[in-house]
Amino acid sequence: MCSTYQTAGGWSASTNSSYPFLASKNLPLLLRLLFLVQLRNEAERELDSTDFKLLHHVSNLCGKCRPGDVELLQPSLNFLYWSLHQTTTCSQQRVVAVLLSSVPLLELLQKVLELTWMWPCRSGPALSSSEEALLCSAWLLTASLLVHQHRYNSEVHQTISLDVEKVLNAVIFRRKKPALLLVSILQFLRAILRQNFSSSLLVLVVQPTAQSRMEPSLSEDDASLYPLATWQVLSLVVSLQNLLVQKDLLLSQTVVACLEVLMEYLHKRNQGIALHVVSQPWNRLLLFTLLDGGENSFLRPEILRLMTLVSRGGIDSSANRLCISTMQVCTLLDGTS
């Protein structure tokens, strides 16, 4: 017997008697406790046979769930994520192999990620906090799998397909998405940019736009940036800069890291576009805004990294010189004395 119901965010959830463990209210609690134990153990450690048995059980459990089984999936994905990160290199390679060998798990991840495009419109109900948390966990785990699969050249049994434009639009047209969800998506975007959109695990779908239908042949700039288009790059840069102004610490750090990788990608693909991006007057205004954000703002690592990124990009120093006022310097010295 199977019953289905709708969550507040429009997700379909189900209870299925063929999986009696899904109905257990104790299992999500147990998984959360396991995750908390992982968080308390800060040091890396070698995983033993018991750890790998548990890893197999949790990954198999995820594969038997549906995207609507939020209460069970979210702590499960967190457990898998930390199992991947909180271990030695030798064990980490085995963890990657275990997770990538689970076809149902990878199929589930794709289904959960695609729920991001179903973000409700203004008139629709908002996602619950648990649904938001599940999306965050899914994006972070997928990004981590991309990085580690590439690092160890692990065998892939099932690919994940994602639409490039939809991933970019999730950041560009963010519709007041929570900061943590944006951080998670940006971590994924950073991973695929670093790999030049080439991964054995990921199949990127590039949908033709209205402009590309009218112009069958790509422009020289678009061809060099493929699978990105020039307008997508510029829109993404503006969106990332706008996120910096929100002054959320974790989000700012992630945005700057993403900008760094994006500029590396542009320098390799089209240095003209890279120079165009860093030479925009908005960069100067953005830096002044961030530097004027409070005491010791000049010492914030993400601002220093952004200044380094801008100066390294070849901006004409006479046109975009950073001037720190005497008051800012005095405040800085007072704060460090």
UniProtKB/TrEMBL annotation:
InterPro entries: Immune_Signaling-Apoptosis_Reg (IPR052133)
Top-level lineage group: Eukaryota
One Gene Ontology biological process: meiosis I
UniProt xrefs under PANTHER family: BCL2 INTERACTING MEDIATOR OF CELL DEATH, MEIOTIC DOUBLE-STRANDED BREAK FORMATION PROTEIN 1
The protein, known as: Meiotic double-stranded break formation protein 1
